[in-house]
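call fold(seq) -> tokens
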Amino acid sequence: MTKRKKRPDLYEVLGVARGADADAIKAAYRKLARKLHPDVNPEDASAEERFKEVSEAYAVLSDAERRRDYDEFGEVSLEGGFDAEKAREAQRAFGGAGHPFGGGGFGAGGFGSGDLDDLLGQMFGGGRARGRGMGIRGHDLEAALELDFLEAARGTEKRLTLKVPDERGVPRAQTVQVRIPAGVADGGRIRLRGKGGRGIGGGPPGDLHAVIKVRPHPVFHREGRDLHLDLPVTVQEAVAGARVEVPTLEGRATVTVPPGTDGGQRLRLRGKGIPNPGGGSPGDLYATVRIRVPKQLDEKAREGLAALARCDPEDPRADLFR
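ret:
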């Protein structure tokens, strides 16, 4: 069986220890990338090749899942189409679950780790990696996308412009169209496949994650999929009852204020809340009654208020002291 050309250890490429944290890996990459960038070394082919190695190493080690696979399986995890679960099945089949891929023999028949490594290379690499550099998937990117409250609630489309490094690490402006589903929440993430960093050596591009920031609204606030607002009513409307208009995401709606409504009571409008991005039922709208007391009373109004006071409960604060 033909042996594959061994790739350099990715940690050694970046000059970091295997236990290095994400910040140390990023710092090492940036330092090397500045030193080896083709724009800094226009006539040095070896520097450009080294820059590609550094970029490939960082593409793997900066991705938590790909780094985990690399730590567990080694360079075979860099093969196109690699599947960690299938690799574990092969490991169990040819030598038991307790042996790492970089360890000694597998199984009583002396099936060596190098043979198993070649077998996995055939399983996941399709033979195309032997003696040649593998294409490396581009970095996943994040970009903040700020929305008005109603844009997030109703859904919309936005254009997002950001700097995306090409395969040589040079930032290039890229504009993408982002479809915002109705009901997206503050802090939500929208994934745009293939809109991230460009791949290296023919590898596929990474993804772009648009992180949503929703600006507050002067009237509505959101709790889950429910909308809440304060509803001012007059003393007469609270005492005698009324039908009043309230704003909703679709326009105006009418809500009934029952006679004798207390301040702080919540009135519910079913289905008038935030749409469900998954296609389920929308939330509800809750209008909390805030009674507006008149500030200036003439003599006649004061006499009416005194008459009204005869209907007040004997001690409205009695329940506070039980």
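Residues 146 and 213 are 5 Å apart (CA to CA).
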